[in-house]
Amino acid sequence: MASTTLYSQRDPMLKKRDDFEDILEERRNSSDLKYAVRCYAPVLYKGLTPCKANMLKSMVLQSDHLRYVINQVSQESGEAPDIIHEEASVILEEMAHRLKISTVRFFAFTLTKAFKTLFQHICVNEEGIHRLQQAIQEHPVVLLPSHRSYMDFLLMSYILYTYDLALPVIAAGMDFMGMKFIGEMLRMSGAFFIRRSFGGDKLYWAVFSEYVKTMLRNGFAPIEFFLEGTRSRTCKSLTPKIGLLNIVMEPFFKGEVFDVHLVPISISYERILEESLYARELLGVPKPKESTSGLLKARRILSENYGSIHVYFGQPVSIRSLAQDKVNRCKYNLVPRHIPRKPTKETQSFVTDTAYRIVRLQEDSMVLKPWVLMASILLQNLEGLELSLLTEQTLWLRGLAQSCGAFLDWPDHTPSAKVVSSSLALHRGLVCVSGGRVSLVLGEPQGLVTPEEALFNRAVSVLSCASYRNQILHVFIRPAILAVAIHNAASSKKDEVFNCFSFLCKMFSDEFILCPGDTVQDFEEACYLLVKSGSVQTLQQNIVVTDRGQSTLSFLNGLLESFLQGYQVVCQYFCEEACDSLTEKQYIPAVRSFAVKLILAGNLRCYEVLSSDMQKNALAALLRLGAVSKVKVADQVTLKVNKLAVNSLEDTLGGRLPTQKAVLARL
Amino acid sequence: VLNVFVFFGGGGGCYNAVIRLSFQCLPQQEIMKWNGWGYSDSKFLFNKKGQAEFTGKRYRLSGMILPSLQDWFENTFGASVKQHKSPATPSLNAGALPPANLNEAFLQDLTATGIPFSHEADDRVFRAHGHCLHEIFALREGRGFQRVPDMVTWPNCHNDVVKIVELACKHNVCVIPYGGGTSVTGALECPPEEMRCIVSLDTSQMNRILWIDEKNLVARIEAGIIGQDLERLLNEGGYCTGHEPDSMEFSSLGGWVATRASGMKKNVYGNIEDLVVHIKVVTPRGVMEKSCQGPRMSTGPDVHHFILGSEGTLGVVTEVTMKIRPIPEYRKYGSVVFPNFEAGVACLREVAKQRCAPASIRLMDNEQFQFGHALKPQVSSIFTSFVEGLKKFYITKFKGFDPHQLCVATLLFEGDRERVLQHEKQVYDIAAKFGGLAAGEDNGQRGYILTFVIAYLRDLGLDYYVVAESFETSVPWDRVLDLCRNVKERIIRECKERGVQFQPLTSCRVTQTYDAGACVYFYFAFNYRGLADPVHTYEQVEHAARDEILANGGSLSHHHGVGKLRKEWMKESISDVGLGMLRSVKEYVDPDNIFGNRNLL
């Protein structure tokens, strides 16, 4: 079934993908109003227990699960159960959606107008839609789109409405609710709101999980949420959060539903609306609080061209088939099903594994534009390069990307020069062409600016550009890590290269989607791809780079260069600058100013280390590897540094220290 | 065929009744099918007019025409009565039988005891199987079995069994006890790897009621007695055991003990473990029995429970003291129609909660309801058909029940008249709260009659490329609906994935209610045209269905037992330690594995 097709094809070149249809085309040729008020009669889940949104709430409040938790909380707090029940009811009120078809129609109308001006095409794979339609009838369905933009969930609902599919209910972050009117509109188009953090709040968790599970069990509507938890500011997939995935799987584990189907959905934007906003945010310019007026100001963006969007609905993945032989459902036989319990280790690792797989499936079907290739090359040539050279290298990279299974949307029957020039035109905010040379726009050189300001302007360009390069990282990440491992390893012996590879995977597992426990598989995949492209040969337990492989390997090395450097800078900071009383909160600004100093002094050319995303990931890695630890002092969390360990990690990353058994053992 | 001698003797209100069947030959075997269920004279067939009928004279349905069965059969399975037949081989091919591997020394000693035995092919094959699909299928194809008993012996009493077991130990032969032969777990199959001589120990001649104790309302009964004989003989004295498993026409008391049987009317009388007061069992270590017949004891773990459910792995049950009850004064059937299965289950749960379950209460799902309809005999008068039509109109049109959703509970009340009527009202009142409508005595009674003929239907299916089987489980109340839905769905999916070309029939019913849960019975059948190895496919699907049952909180078995069919799940079901406990008992009681049927462990 679905699971067998998950990674059945070893050769990524052979991946079969569906064709796309442009849904805006029809909208441009017919009445938007008619479209918004047309008859909408989606197919429903065959086991549906019809119920109104209000009934749903009382089902949740009267559920055994919630009643149990209410009593528990009441006993612990000494508060009367009625009061806790009232609290639960308030939480639910704040959370619940009020899906209304009229609001959906309103959105259908206005979004059509907006989409038509913003985007050239919105392309959807119709076969995926057909598969989804069938899945919706058969099983409760969970939609799992990638998350790059605020647009994502409006877009999803819009597409489902267009194809006459059941509208999803969507788990959205509470921050949206701050946008008074819009918040309510979103609620009426199916969003329900969850607080960003409620760790430890038993009652909240119970209301929330019961609400989701009730909708799932009854087949009320497809449930949609973002595995990545939040929008990825870097366009790189984020390490999946497994809380909600745990919740939607539970009804299957407990036998309350026969199966649940997960549908990975890849939404790729040619240009993201929030492009420069993200870069600034990463550089520490705080993100504007979501507000309706802020959104209105964003109307400025309506005048720009954001290219096209591709939405790929992946093959529904059956949890039942995935869980076969991995989760023993009998474990749930011995305690009444309404009593909440921590998932077992076995379940936990299954859910994590599934989350990674789904994110990889999302990545696999991300549509990549030629510009992504160009951005990758430009970032390795910050001083700029000849247009003709750029074109040539882009074509070369196209070949490499395709052989690694990239889902490239390269226009047919168009001269490559034209492809390159139109990409440059679309992204003229980021690149400029002068005198046949292409280079990144390095800030606006208007007036007198301080060196810091100039640096930040440059960093905005670099990070924006990096957000495009990041889109292709999933294609190259395994071969690239291998390339670095080959470069850093003391010899070409396969096990030594593997040690190095495995070290890098551990180091970067917060940075890239590398499923914990898949290292051997990842290594084999990387070897396979590099051998297939003729870049390396494996000879008697040795991995040897071929002559024509040099350029490939140097490109791949270059791809990870900024990450390697960035992590080393963080290590360096911990060794040289960090004081004992460094708190978690101070960490990011401190590293940032440390890096700024290095760059201004001309000792560092890597701008990406200024990204708070990379800084956070690096810290997470150091914490995970035990080189840094958190210590709670009073009400502050300080970071305690094991300088020896940090130092050796830094040297290993830089290839100055071989990946010793000792280091690994300590990790 | 049956000679009944009744001797009254003794005094003081207690009489000894020695009641025995004629020991001329082996009556069961003569009148039973050798390759299907039940009596040779009773079977379903499609007559020349294409109408279904049930032959013979034994059942209420016997000799009747069933006009709607053909349509139902063809529509449900995609079968064709005219075109696609798969008849059974007419007779046993004795040549296909492995030669008897006799232990001469044992034979000699056995002959000296005068206990009858045989190594005729018919006798051996008859005792080489139960009624699993694969067993019956093999017989119908004339294939026979890889390993069958090498000889059969018929002890006449407890002492005969003692002698046989002693000789078996002395000469190291394997003994497999045989009661009624109705096993559906492969329990009677001979292990193919068994190299020793296999002796089938047929208990059918130990069929006497030794005495009846009216003061304590118990009877001492030899374990070979068949259920219906026991009930009939007790009835003559005004008593009954009330133990009525669906197989009671053919299954034996010893078999019930060995498999932990459950009777339809357990709500009043209890299951076999509640009915048994004393057990005498012959093991290789000697005879085990308790020294008194106290109604309950605190003497460590109850040793009866090593025997109850031991499936012939420890020894032979020879005599049992069992509770008896006066025959109830009044009995009344009933039925209730529910708008859907969910409502029905909710009602049964409430009935169980109030502990007011009638002697029997069973809930059939919609598929079984429709099937029951297909088995309605030809209506004799226009009036009845008019009334039927009216009823149908009332339920579907007036009450708005969806004929593809509604389901029926059948009820059986027993006791004194007044109490029954009171009880009946209580149950119908509860049913009404769950949207149930009383649907008459007739429907109820028909439901219970069907219980006995339904087993014959598999043979009809097998004549037309349809394989069928039933299996059961017990499950906590809160999981009943989820389990039923998931198991049915799993079966449908597995069939599809394994290339079954036609939609399978999956149906279930709740057949017993308990305080903490229910017994659920599944029927499952499909048209196997186009499949190379239908039995294998069937077994894979049943295997998956059992996995699903376990994953949904169901037990490995409620009353069928484990046999060889479900051995692989025992460890998971009772834990390593639990299995070790059972093993250590086996090792102590039967170190040489004389009772080597290899069931259970």
TrEMBL record, chain A:
A Pfam family of this chain: GPAT_C
Pathway(s) this gene product operates in, as recorded in its UniProt entry: Phospholipid metabolism
GO cellular component: mitochondrial membrane; peroxisomal membrane
Gene Ontology BP, a term: phospholipid biosynthetic process
Localization (cell): Membrane
Broad class of where this protein is predominantly found: membrane
Span of domain Phospholipid/glycerol acyltransferase: 141-270
UniProt GO molecular function: glycerol-3-phosphate O-acyltransferase activity; glycerone-phosphate O-acyltransferase activity
Keywords associated with the record: Acyltransferase, Membrane, Transferase
Cross-referenced SMART domains: PlsC
Secretion signal, residue range per the UniProt entry: none
InterPro entries for the chain: GPAT/DHAPAT, GPAT/DHAPAT_C, GPAT/DHAPAT_LPLAT, Plipid/glycerol_acylTrfase
Family of the protein in this entry: Belongs to the GPAT/DAPAT family.
Protein name: Phospholipid/glycerol acyltransferase domain-containing protein
Source species taxonomy: Eukaryota, Metazoa, Chordata, Craniata, Vertebrata
Automatic annotation (TrEMBL), chain B:
Protein residues bound to FAD: 177-183, 259-262, 311-317
Required cofactor(s): FAD
Pfam families: FAD-oxidase_C, FAD_binding_4
The keyword Lipid biosynthesis appears for this protein: yes
Residues reported in the UniProt entry to bind substrate: R458
EC number: 2.5.1.26
Example GO biological process: ether lipid biosynthetic process
Active site annotation, chain numbering: Y521 (proton donor/acceptor)
Transmembrane feature ranges: none
Annotated site residue numbers, Important for enzyme activity: R362
UniProt keywords, alphabetically: Acetylation, FAD, Flavoprotein, Lipid biosynthesis, Lipid metabolism, Membrane, Peroxisome, Phosphoprotein, Transferase, Transit peptide
Keyword Lipid metabolism in record: yes
Domain FAD-binding PCMH-type: 145-327
Record text on subunit structure and interactions: Homodimer.
Protein name, as recorded: Alkylglycerone-phosphate synthase
Gene name of the encoded protein: AGPS
